[in-house]
Amino acid sequence: MDFETKNGHLMWDGCDTVALAQEFGTPLYVFSQTMIEEKCQELQRDFVEKYDNVRVAFASKAFSTLAMLKIIEKQGFSLDVVSDGELYTAVKAEFPAAHIEMNGNNKSIEELEMAIDYGVGRIIIDSLQEVALIAAIAKEKQRVVDILFRITPEVNVQTHSFISTGQKDSKFGIPIDEAILFPQIKQAIETPEVNFLGFHFHVGSQLFDNEAHLAAVGIALDLVRLVKERFDYTIKELNFGGGFGVRYTDADQPKPFSYFTDPMMAQVLAFCEEEQFPQPAIVIEPGRSIVAEAGISLHKIGAIKELPGLRKYVSIDGGMTDNIRPGLYEAEYTGILANKADQPAAETVTVSGKACESTDILVKDIELPTVEAGDIFATFSTGAYGYSMASNYNKLAIPAVVLTNDGQAECIVKRQTLDQIIQNEEIPSFLK
Ligand SMILES: *Cc1c(COP(=O)(O)O)cnc(C)c1O
Predict the structure, then answer these.
(1) Of 61, 301, 336, 373, which shows the fewest CB atoms inside 10 Å?
(2) 326 ligand 1 Cβ < 6 A
């Protein structure tokens, strides 16, 4: 991984990470605003400014905090939310409602009411009862709701099966099936409380190959043609989801956004020209690829356990509670000792978390300088799905989050206190 050092310390966006660990404590998430904005700039230049009628919606589940949503809003991007909590965060960040898109495979009535009350820009339908449900709520509130259908394009992707979503047997999306999808489309066209805009797909996550996206675009365009033929109805919007891969370790070779978006747009534009079709709005929903590499985690090394001839475990003061991805789907990470960033590797160790699970291993067999208690281990590329999947397992506190910007650093999420961990707990009268 590429990184800068100063006085033997890992530097991040102009900040000394060892000093950050001292000032804000560990475990600590550190996000570089500079690096997030660099990714956004790439999207602006190679997608938003390059093509007409296209949008980027940040998939907020990757990292949803008030400060992050401000960064996204400043870019003029839209926001994808999938729950009342993510929508609430957007409302509290005063994110423009019209730029919010609501996904989710099981939205509750309360969530739909909340979304319609706030006036979100799009609701993406992912279940067979949803059109009727939305229509009923919209009628009561005298609103018309813009909708898309999330389809399962039935493409197989090269990623861990736990994070692939576009295959037929999936809890996500509506199968492209005569008997299932077409009655839904007919209903949507005929229901005055909804404005049927088009289709959405999301084929999977952490993809390095554009094949699945391109196959799915082809399928979506076939549907556009079919809907025109069958219903004389013109699709106005297509959402191609996210899933663009990032670098977690040196083995990952991520591609620029344009590797995905250019051929997708070429396909759309060729289709529109051939079929004499007005170009639908094209939306992409990157999450991971905007924030993953901009974030690192800092942990303090504690117990060191050498099992002769077997393995040396060095334990950190966090683990699966602040980064569950290794335990959840065998995700790989790499890192360095932030306070020995200039020193050569001297031993091979396994960095383990402090939670009571044997899968709580952050990095297996990593080469580091001689590790001592008190060293600061920095894990790279933890910006996506680290903080957002954090838990209180073992009643460990959720770490603080710091945002850096060219040498400045400020706390954007305070460390949870022990009182906050149990603040909602009560002892019932019959136990007193
Ligand atoms: C998770 C998700 C995304 C973002 O995926 P990334 O891999 O983080 O880019 C986009 N759209 C939908 C519907 C999702 O579920």
Answers:
(1) 373
(2) no
4-30+292-422 maps to which CATH number?
A: 2.40.37.10
Question: Crossing angle of helices 109-118/84-92, nearest 10°?
Answer: 20
Q: How confident is the model at residue 168 (pLDDT cuts 50, 70, 90)?
A: low
Residue 73 makes CB contacts below 8 A (sequence gap 6+) with: 79, 93, 95, 96, 99
Q: Which amino acid is at 66?
A: L
Architecture per CATH, 33-288: Alpha-Beta Barrel (3.20)
Cα gap 413→400, rounded to integer Å: 5
Per-domain residue ranges of the chain? 4-30+292-422, 33-288
Tens of pLDDT, residues 22-61:
999 999 999 999 999 999 999 999 999 999 999 999 999 9
pLDDT for 161 equals 58
- Asked about 40 being catalytic, the answer comes back as no
d(CA 194, CA 232): 17
Whether 280 is in the pocket of ligand 1, judged by its Cβ within 6 Å, is no
**Closest to 350 measured CA to CA, from 318, 315, 379:** 315
pLDDT of residue 155: 78
Give the C-alpha separation, 143 to 158, whole Å: 41
Which of 205, 210, 247 gets mutated to test ligand 1 (max ligand atoms within 8 A of its CB)? 205
Those residues whose C-beta lies under 8 Å from the C-beta of residue 255, and which sit 6 or more positions away, are 208, 210, 244, 245
Give me the count of residues in the chain. 432
Report the predicted TM-score, pTM, of the whole model to 2 decimal places: 0.96
